[in-house]
Amino acid sequence: MLTTTKLNLALFLARVPLGAYFVIAGFNKLAGPGGLTGFVEAAKGTVPSGMEQFGNAYLHALPFVEIAAGLFVILGLVVRLNAFLMALMLASFIYAMKLPMNVARIHPVEGAKPFDPNIVLLGLALCLTLLGAGEWGSHRAFRRRRRVIVATEPGTVATTSRGTPIV
Fold this sequence. Notes:
The chain starts with a helix and ends in a 7-residue tail after the last strand. The chain is mostly helical. About 55% of the residues lie in helices and about 0% in strands. The chain is elongated, with a radius of gyration of 22 Å. The protein contains 5 helices and 2 strands. Strands 1-2 form a two-stranded antiparallel ribbon. The protein has one domain (about 5-160).
């Protein structure tokens, strides 16, 4: 049986590597040869025809969005939204690479991977989109705590901090 602690640990162990992957990928795009301009020039060939203007803006924003989304997922802040954003980015990478329909190779070529790692990361990002951060995220620091006031005198009604009666 999956307990709350095990679920929180599993979500934490899913969040950290996925977030770290995106943070490192974003920094590598910025620190690579030629910096951001070099990355944009090298990746322009992957932009579908007819979308050059959108593709140029996307490529310029991509490293910064990767870093921000990765950090938010690691910290456990707005995880569902950021994991969905990661899933969209991963889907765009898969589309831009024009992967063949047989993405799983039974007898891979020497040195080739049986799966494209982006497909595995896409599955992980979609899982985090559905499940969220769990209880081990920084979002708990920003959550409003409900304070319960218990009535001690006869005739008084117990209420929550918002004034609603406790039934």
